Amino acid sequence: MEFKVTRNPNPTPASEREEIIANPVFGAKLTDHQVVVVWEKDKGWHSAEVIPYGPIMMDPSAAVLHYGQEIFEGIKAYRHQDGSIWTFRPEANAARLQRSARRMALPELPAEIFVESLRQLIAVDGAWVPTPEGEKTLYFRPFEIAAENFLGVRAAQRAEYRVIASPVGPYFTGGVKPVSIWIALDSARAGKHGTGEAKTGGNYAASLLAQQVGYENGCSQVMFLDAETSTYIEELGGMNLFFVYRDGHVATPSLDGTILHGITRDSVITLMRDRGIEVQERKVSLDEVREGVKTGDIVEVFACGTAAVITPVGTLKSSVEEIVIGGNEPGRLTVEMRMELTGIQYGIRPDRHNWMLKL
Ligand code: PLP
Ligand code: COI
């Protein structure tokens, strides 16, 4: 698909851009351009364009504003030491965007258009990709919205795919310091046959109230349990979880329909299995974790995701308890996996699985 490119006539001055990318705050500043591709039921995908960054003109009756028919992705561009710009497993994000689209009755964007949209944005905004020190990257936010003006409740017949990008530093500003997690005992994110596996705005909207309570209690993320029995650990509001046992094996909640299929999760499982570590994908109950931490059987807990990379979890907290893991210090495997994954992404460790794509 050909992309029509219209350059921003008033781009951010270079000095201002350099200042922003030297010290980026997650999602606070956006680059100078965006990608738009339109879909209409009778025409398919068309009108691919790179245009100046700016507001979306939208009719107040646009379906996305009323019924939340929206999906998104999160993927990063990494600058290597030689200045080249790379991304990580884009075909996995493209495939997940398609799965999210199917669940939310939105059109599936062909994977080639997804990858090309990242290339097109980098072609005009490549200068926004920071140098790698301090784990800086350019975070792409591809998303799809129902853009039909119609108040009837049905799948929209017009949709838009867009990509915007923001230079980012670590999601958690404390660096590799362990984070505290609030256990949502009375709030669920996703239920059986619901939309938990889709990366759709509604799942995040459902998590915000618990997130607010978490913040009030000194926690930076919320851990959700299964909606039916509040017994099994699912995931955080924006990350997957891993539990490291003293005997060397690792467990992570299985993908049973309600949690996001994290690409970092999948990559970490692969890298650990490469090292001969046994990784169990199974149900993990809060009781098991509470007991395991108490007896010393569980020695590390970490969260992972594109934004958060790999972040140690130091404390799990609720209104009734506080579970402190590994003396609230980052665990050995957590730190090693973080170095290995970021090493691959920044081009300083071998990419044995061909995960990196040059943009
Ligand atoms: N779980 C949720 C709810 C998320 O929002 C994310 C972030 O994208 C993840 C897990 C981790 O997924 P990934 O590793 O693909 O970024
Ligand atoms: C990501 O990691 O890409 C996410 O979408 C999670 C969110 C916390 C920003």
TrEMBL record:
Please list the reactions this protein catalyses: L-leucine + 2-oxoglutarate = 4-methyl-2-oxopentanoate + L-glutamate; L-valine + 2-oxoglutarate = 3-methyl-2-oxobutanoate + L-glutamate; L-isoleucine + 2-oxoglutarate = (S)-3-methyl-2-oxopentanoate + L-glutamate
A Pfam family for this UniProt protein? Aminotran_4
Q: Which UniProt keywords apply?
A: Amino-acid biosynthesis, Aminotransferase, Branched-chain amino acid biosynthesis, Pyridoxal phosphate, Transferase
InterPro entries the record matches: Aminotrans_IV, Aminotrans_IV_CS, Aminotransferase-like, B_amino_transII, BCAT-like_C, BCAT-like_N, BCAT_family
The UniProt similarity line reads: Belongs to the class-IV pyridoxal-phosphate-dependent aminotransferase family.
Extract the PROSITE patterns matched here.
AA_TRANSFER_CLASS_4
N6-(pyridoxal phosphate)lysine modified-residue sites: 199
Q: What terms describe the molecular function in GO for this protein?
A: branched-chain-amino-acid transaminase activity
> Protein name, please?
Branched-chain-amino-acid aminotransferase
Q: Which pathway does UniProt place it in?
A: Amino-acid biosynthesis; L-valine biosynthesis; L-valine from pyruvate: step 4/4; Amino-acid biosynthesis; L-isoleucine biosynthesis; L-isoleucine from 2-oxobutanoate: step 4/4; Amino-acid biosynthesis; L-leucine biosynthesis; L-leucine from 3-methyl-2-oxobutanoate: step 4/4
Q: An example of a Gene Ontology BP annotation on this entry?
A: L-valine biosynthetic process
PANTHER family for this protein? BRANCHED-CHAIN-AMINO-ACID AMINOTRANSFERASE, SUBGROUP IIII AMINOTRANSFERASE
**Native source species:** Aquiluna borgnonia
Note the SUPFAM superfamilies from the entry. Answer: D-aminoacid aminotransferase-like PLP-dependent enzymes (SSF56752)
Q: Which cofactor does it need?
A: pyridoxal 5'-phosphate
The protein's Enzyme Commission number = 2.6.1.42
